[in-house]
Write a structure and sequence with these properties.
Blueprint (H helix, E strand, L loop, with lengths): L1 E3 L2 E3 L6 E7 L4 E7 L5 E5 L4 E3 L4 E3 L1 H12 L3 E6 L11 H8 L2 E5 L2 H11 L15 E3 L4 E4 L2 E7 L8 E5 L2 E3 L21 H12 L6 E3 L14 E3 H7 L9 H12 L8 H8 L24
Helix pairs in contact: 1-2, 4-6
Length: 298
């Protein structure tokens, strides 16, 4: 047992990790299998949306379901590393087909309160995280079969961001990108560049040979899409925080960079759905479902 940053990391456990890349949103979802059993978890699944047509489909989620079924796996957890602003979660659809518990960081309540106001949600929209089966606090542990996993709070991109460590594999969400991709923006409501830097330092305090898996990759400078690196590689080569860059340097860069970025094209449907644990807003009296577009609110 190795101890880093007050969190237990059993590097002897090497889970099998299967990645699923969605080119429409540059999202990588994962099925993570306990090496000692058939138990598995799904991390950051995707539900497809054609925003111009207002049409929801489930091709990505069906691919994950097929993989789990074909390999005789038992789904125990569906993990959301944060409330995504660039894709819709496929977790409730997968859960309906295969079971498992749906978990997210306990600061989801902050997101729900903030965006409940942005989208003018009524009192029927619960802001207590009750749409999820488990609200993880910093350092919480849970089991995937025989494998112990733990959740590490990494706010900064959003208040509810967490990195989930499963054996020798850590799932970074949007806290970090590949070394040549740097880090995520910190200008969404509740985001904070200084807090993001501190959260990244927590991740970089994990063992250097810990495998890190990204939630997104955009192939900087035309390279092929990648999603796996290590803590050591990030510490040495990450273009935003590697090589000993200071907190002040990072905050200055991140703040100036974020001011130049446009909003993600799917942020409006994504937040409305993902703050509800991947469920669509309730249908109206006619049975139709609608997504709202707040004007000049983001």
């Amino acid at each position: 047992m190795i101890i880093r940053s007050n969190y237990p990391v059993d590097m002897a456990v090497v889970p099998e990790v299967k990645a699923f890349f969605d080119p429409a949103t540059n999202t990588i979802s994962y099925v993570v299998r306990d090496p000692s059993s058939k138990a598995c978890a799904v991390v950051d699944s995707v539900m497809d949306i054609d925003i111009a047509a207002g049409r929801i489909t489930y091709d990505n989620a069906n691919e994950i379901i097929a993989y789990i079924e074909e390999n005789g796996l038992e789904l125990e957890w569906l993990i959301e590393t944060h409330v995504h602003a660039d894709h819709l979660s496929g977790a409730p659809y997968i859960q309906q087909k295969l079971g498992g518990k749906l978990g997210i960081g306990d600061q989801i309540t902050v997101i729900q309160e903030t965006f409940g106001k942005v989208f003018n949600e009524g009192t029927e929209f619960q802001r207590d995280g009750s749409q999820f089966d488990r609200l993880f606090q910093d350092g919480d542990t849970y089991r995937i079969g025989e494998m112990t996993a733990f959740a590490m709070a990494t706010p900064g991109h959003t208040p509810a961001c967490m990195v989930h460590v499963m054996g020798n594999a850590a799932f970074a969400g949007d806290t970090l990108f590949m070394p040549d991709g740097g880090s995520a923006r910190a200008d969404f409501p509740g985001g904070d560049a200084a807090m993001l830097y501190d959260s990244i330092q927590k991740v970089l305090a994990l063992p250097e040979d810990m495998r890190l898996f990204m939630c997104h990759d955009y192939g900087p400078n035309g390279r092929d899409i990648q999603w796996e690196t290590t803590v050591g590689d990030e510490k040495e080569h990450n273009i935003h925080v590697g090589g000993g860059k200071t907190r002040e340097e990072f905050v200055k860069f991140r703040t100036e960079r974020d001011a130049q970025l446009s909003m993600p094209k799917l942020i409006i449907p994504s937040i409305q759905v993902n703050m509800r644990a991947g469920k669509l807003p309730p249908a109206d009296d006619s049975g139709k479902t609608f997504l709202k577009v707040p004007v000049n609110a983001l």
